[in-house]
Amino acid sequence: MHTEFDTGVAAASRSWPFGRVQVHAPGRLHLGFLDPAGTLGRRFGSLGLVIDGPQTHVELGPACADSFDAPARDQDALARARAHVETLRRATGCRTPLALRLRSVLPAHAGLGSGTQLALAVGSAFCAAFDIPLTTPQLAFALGRGARSGVGVAGFEKGGLLVDGGPRADGSPAALLARVDLPAAWRVLLVLDPRLQGLSGAAEKAALARLAPLPRAAAADICHEVLMRVLPGAAGAEFEPFAAGLTHIQQLLGEHFAPAQEGRGFASEAVERLLRWVARNSQAGIGQSSWGPTGFAFLPSEAQAHAVLAAARAAGVVDAGLAVQVIRARNQGATVSDQRAGA
């Protein structure tokens, strides 16, 4: 089979004679594990939130010859996307030539779920374009996603604030235990440090292996906070218990994972400095998503989020290298649009 790598928009456009499928996959915040040590025999379990901010945007459709295209900065993501296509071809037997274009991707190893969202976006587009009836969990399993946390998989499908029960014994993605819409008025101060990346791959596995197990009492405390403050707070639009519960969970987990982050609760000192200032000067729930370096602060309204950000800038605690946004939670999952003729 002839494979060509198109790098220009005009060249890629010639590869769409049959139309294409577009997938927009939002990022997610991983807000914490429930029991990473499995003190009752089941490891991990996760709390997470889908956000209406950075996203992965994929186009895929039948073509006369294979074509893979992405901006120069996203060539690593394009290589992963191409590998996902080959995995799907082996799994399904569908080898129709295709054109795939990455319009945008989430920053890699930043705590936003870039790997899972890219895999599921490519997988969903592939299945839609060629009428292959695989579910989102089946795609995740086939593409090796959701081995520890299930919130990225469930978030791709459903959006919202999510709790999963940890991976199944066969390694397939975790069952979804709870899903709650976050109140429309609440906002997230999303703080990215593009200069750093969080742990991933072999380094992540090695770091986890070196950590002492999270004590059962701490895991029980986290589960109590999720069940009796975070979820009820979100479901009942009660911001104070939600924020207090989330901050407490993040403090427990930050202390536990600190040895893997040079003794700090945050991967980025600049992110930590800003968020601790926000916590001291407002009613906010703060923390780090996964291994970071992305951090977050939940605020009860857009006005308060912008006000605290302006005050932080005036106080000189917003490092010039940080990218800071005020965003909403996203109470729906990825969007898939089919532009094929006759679809």
Automatic annotation (TrEMBL):
Domain GHMP kinase C-terminal per the UniProt entry, residue ranges: 259-316
Stored InterPro entries: GHMP_kinase_C_dom, GHMP_kinase_N_dom, RFAP_synthase, Ribosomal_Su5_D2-typ_SF, Ribsml_uS5_D2-typ_fold_subgr
Q: Which Pfam families match?
A: GHMP_kinases_C (PF08544), GHMP_kinases_N (PF00288)
Q: Which UniProt keywords apply?
A: Kinase, Transferase
What Gene3D superfamilies would the database entry show? 3.30.230.10
SUPFAM superfamilies from the UniProt entry: Ribosomal protein S5 domain 2-like (SSF54211)
Q: Where is the GHMP kinase N-terminal domain?
A: 85-150
Q: Which domain of life, per UniProt? A: Bacteria
Name under which the protein is recorded:
Beta-ribofuranosylaminobenzene 5'-phosphate synthase
Organism encoding this protein: Ramlibacter alkalitolerans
